[in-house]
Amino acid sequence: MDGSSLPFIYLLEDAGIVDQNAEKRFIRIKQAVRVEDPGKWVQFTPYEGFKVSLTIDFDHPVFNCTNQTFHIDFAGQSYIDEIARARTFGFMQEMELMRSHNLGLGGNLNNAIVIDDTDVLNPDGLRYSDEFVRHKTLDAIGDLYVLGHPIIGAFEGFKSGMPSTMRCYVN
DSSP per residue over 19-70, as a string? Predict the structure, then answer.
């Protein structure tokens, strides 16, 4: 695994598609819902389709050089082309702390983007110039799919995937 969702896409494509006898069910956003925590927020708004807009905000030199906002409308853009290759990322100091607690022991430069105090440590660099926010978008989409049905609506977040307070509202 490389820290992205691409290996899962390959497995799903390899497994193929099987028609189901049940009708597909959706969650339709009928009115705006917004949840805020100090300095961050998420919201759903009505939209005929599914789109996601996410903004991250990290005070670090690596992030200051990249776009920290990403928008995707699935009516005209491809998850595989735009998001699936975006890898997870972490800071070297956090990884050292995790390892000191026997966590994240399999993490390395082959399955995550690792950032030190000033730069990306991966020799091949980033796959997208805005790979960080694309991966956070991938995370948010994964959080939303825990609902069990595709969404018809727009999701927007600032400095957040899906905070625990939002999970209380959607359960």
Answer: --SSPP--EE--S-EEEEETTEEEEEE--SSEEEEEE----SHHHHTS--EE
Reading the block at residue 93, the tokens are 């100091």
Residue 22's contacts (CB-CB under 8 Å, 6 or more residues apart) are none
Confidence at residue 161, expressed as pLDDT on a 0 to 100 scale:
52
Instruction: Write down the pTM of the prediction.
Output: 0.85
Structural domain boundaries in the chain: 6-170
CATH 1.10.260.40 fits 6-170, yes or no: no
Q: How confident is the model at residue 43 (pLDDT cuts 50, 70, 90)?
A: very high
Are residues 156 and 42 in contact, defined by beta-carbon separation less than 8 angstroms? yes
Nearest to 50 by CA among 9, 78, 69: 78
Q: Using only C-alpha atoms, what is the Rg of the chain?
A: 17
